[in-house]
Amino acid sequence: MSASATPFTPLRSVLYMPSSNGRALEKAKSIACDGLILDLEDAVAPDAKTAARDAAAAAVASGAYGRRTVTIRVNGLGTPWHDADLEAAAQAGPAGIVVPKVNSADEVRGLVAAIERAGAPDHTRLWAMVETPQAIFDAREIAAASDRLAVLVMGTNDLVKELYAEHVPGRGPLLTALQTAVLAARAAGVEILDGVYNDVQDTDGFLAECRQGRELGFDGKTLIHPGQVPGANEAFAPGEQAVEDARGILAAWEAGQGAGVVTYQGRMVENLHVESARRTLAIHESILALQA
Ligand SMILES: CC(C)(COP(=O)(O)OP(=O)(O)OC[C@H]1O[C@@H](n2cnc3c(N)ncnc32)[C@H](O)[C@@H]1OP(=O)(O)O)[C@@H](O)C(=O)NCCC(=O)NCCSC(=O)C[C@H](O)C(=O)O
Ligand SMILES: [Mg+2]
Asked: GO MF terms on file (predicted)?
């Protein structure tokens, strides 16, 4: 098993929905998001947990979500629902099982063992949510703890709560945590998704946060409303200019015929820029393939 998700399976827009909400589960079949998180945790009331678990498993089994990466978010370790959620999710075999409030590498190894005991297929990866101060301090070990761990997911609501911080434009109080988590993901070679933007009516604020997430290095953003999908898809895809530059860099490099350094539009190009250009084009092509 490789250490990361399938290369360039786009995860620009990953939409949470309460698995207790049949209308949302139905609607998701036609939403242009790259991924879905069928939630059993925060968005589901205690008396709806069992029905939501069954609905999430049935949704995965239906195969009705096409090319979207479908995951199930279980309730956290230590809650009354965790064990049954994890077993049901493992047996349903989604692309990922999202576990909230993962706090250590030992927890990751325990979760992987439990998923494997429950008979999860190889394609079912662990997505660990980092959303506590402890998780941020241990992010590097968490990200590297198992080859089955493919994605880190920021839980910025829980993080703000635990820090006694505030949600403010620009996310100053969270920047250290966000950057630490991105460093951990990149060091381990796993993907990382930014947290949600709570105000579903504030488009400008949402788009600014998407741009910031992209600039920080996130692969995509978790979302709570279908209206947020187009903005995330655009923000986390290479823009036209980036694609044109990547093609130009590759052409300049090939024309250099083995020179260690060339220029493109007056700028120095070395092997590292060529690698970045190839990555940009690979992401672009994988997004085009989704639309085909
Ligand atoms: C936020 C919402 C409660 C708003 O719901 P609502 O007022 O119903 O929205 P709309 O009327 O605008 O909905 C329009 C249609 O879209 C469908 N819809 C809405 N949201 C979703 C969704 N998430 N997925 C799929 N479809 C959705 C509605 O059903 C309407 O459909 P139709 O009637 O056919 O036109 C709501 O958006 C919502 O519940 N969002 C998800 C909330 C959630 O999952 N929260 C938990 C995850 S966030 C979190 O916990 C992060 C982390 O742990 C942290 O700590 O930060
Ligand atoms: Mg949370």
From this structure: citryl-CoA lyase activity; magnesium ion binding
